[in-house]
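Same chain as my last thread, 72 residues:
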Amino acid sequence: MDRQRPDHDEYLHKIEALAHDLVAAAIEEDSFEVYLDREPKTPLQGAITRLARNLRHTHYRGDGCIPGEAEE
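reply #2:
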């Protein structure tokens, strides 16, 4: 199957959406505590915790997270 390559912004939006899905799935798992200050039990938990914290606390112009900010 020949796929059309998305532009850079479309690609980043898709990756961010997948990252949010991954974090949401991890939160549903009893073994993940992504927002607690405890030390992660495994390298995978550590990676997901860092991803979750970045998604929650780091925002960019036009990402839809900052009220009143519109993509120009």
